[in-house]
Specification:
mainly beta, Elongation Factor Tu (Ef-tu), domain 3, OB fold (Dihydrolipoamide Acetyltransferase, E2P), 2 domains, 1 helix, 15 strands
C-alpha cells in the first residue's frame, strides 16, 4: 500500500514596509507642521539690540517729562507765544496827496502835535499843503511811507510808542491759565538779548479765549479786547470743524529791563511763577 506524503509550504515573506519621510529621523520625533511655533525663529542679536534701544529711549522720554514737571512746569507757566506791545500813537494822512517834508524814521522821538511832514494836494493851480501832526508823544517804531509817496486821506503813515507804556502780551494756553494770577512775578527772556535778566508782573488776564489768528492784531489795537470764542467759528463748516488752539491773552508790565532794549514787536518767552 502506497502512502502519499504532503510537503508543507512555507508562507511567502511579507513585502518590506516603505520608510515614511517623517520616520527618516526617528530621533527627532514627529513634526507637527500645523503648529504655529514650528515657523517661529529666535530673535537675532540685531533685533534684540534694536528692541532694547527702543525701550531705553522710551524710559528716557518718561524720565525727561518727569524731570521737566518737577523742575519747570511745577514752578512756572511757560509761554513762548509772547510779544512786546504798547499803547500806539498812530499818525495818519490828513488828506489825499503826496507826502512832503517827511522827517520820521525808526527811533525818532515825537511830541504831541508836532508837525512831522505835509501832504501836498495834487491838482491844477496853487494847492494847499496840509500839515501832518503827531497826536501824541512817543518813539517811532514803524514807518509806512517815504518822501514823495502818494496817499489817500486816513492812510496810516507811522506808528510810535511811548517807552514807558510798553508791555508784554503773552498767549497762555487755555489749559494752563489756572496757574496764572494777577500780580504774579514773571521772568522774561527777550529773543534779542537772552542773557539779560528782564522781569515783570501780571497786570491783566483776558476774560475769554482767542485763537492764534485773532491775536495777530493790527498796530494800535488791544489784543486783550477779544471777547468772542473762536471754536467753532462763524465760518466753520459744521460737517468738518477745524479745532483751533485757544489761548488766553495775559498782559505783563515790565518791572526791570536792565540793559535789554525792548521795543514793540520783539518776540519774548515768559516764565510766569505759579500761584
Amino acid at each position: 500500500m502506497t502512502s502519499s506524503t504532503t510537503t508543507p509550504t512555507s508562507p511567502s515573506p511579507a513585502p518590506p514596509e516603505e520608510a515614511s519621510p517623517v520616520d527618516a529621523s526617528p530621533q527627532d520625533g514627529p513634526v507637527d507642521r500645523t503648529s504655529p511655533t514650528s515657523s517661529r525663529r529666535p530673535w537675532t542679536r540685531t533685533t534684540k539690540i534694536g528692541v532694547a534701544a527702543v525701550v531705553v529711549l522710551a524710559l528716557l522720554e518718561v524720565a525727561t517729562l518727569g524731570t521737566r514737571y518737577l523742575t519747570t512746569d511745577r514752578l512756572w507757566v511757560i509761554a513762548d507765544n509772547a510779544q512786546v506791545d504798547g499803547d500806539a500813537v498812530q499818525i495818519n494822512a490828513p488828506g489825499t496827496g503826496v507826502v512832503m517834508d517827511w522827517g520820521l524814521d525808526m527811533g525818532t522821538p515825537i511830541r504831541p502835535h508836532e508837525q512831522v511832514g505835509r501832504i501836498e494836494v495834487q491838482g491844477s493851480g496853487a494847492q494847499p499843503k496840509k500839515p501832518i501832526r503827531s497826536p501824541g508823544a512817543g518813539t517811532v517804531a514803524q514807518t509806512m511811507v517815504t518822501e514823495g509817496t502818494y496817499v489817500t486821506e486816513g492812510t496810516l503813515l507811522a506808528v510810535a510808542y511811548e517807552p514807558t507804556s510798553i508791555y508784554v502780551t503773552a498767549r497762555v494756553p487755555e489749559e494752563e491759565i489756572s496757574g496764572v494770577r494777577l500780580g504774579a512775578s514773571v521772568d522774561i527772556v527777550v529773543d534779542s538779548a537772552p542773557d539779560v535778566p528782564v522781569t515783570g508782573t501780571v497786570a491783566v488776564i483776558g476774560a475769554a479765549s482767542a485763537g492764534a489768528s485773532e491775536l495777530e492784531n493790527d498796530s494800535g489795537t488791544d489784543p486783550l479786547s477779544h471777547e468772542q470764542p473762536i471754536y467753532p467759528g462763524p465760518d466753520t463748516d459744521p460737517q468738518n470743524p477745524q479745532r483751533v488752539d485757544q489761548y488766553i491773552p495775559v498782559k505783563i508790565l515790565f518791572t526791570h529791563t536792565g540793559d535789554a532794549r525792548v521795543t514793540p514787536g520783539q518776540n519774548v518767552t515768559v516764565h510766569i511763577h505759579r500761584s
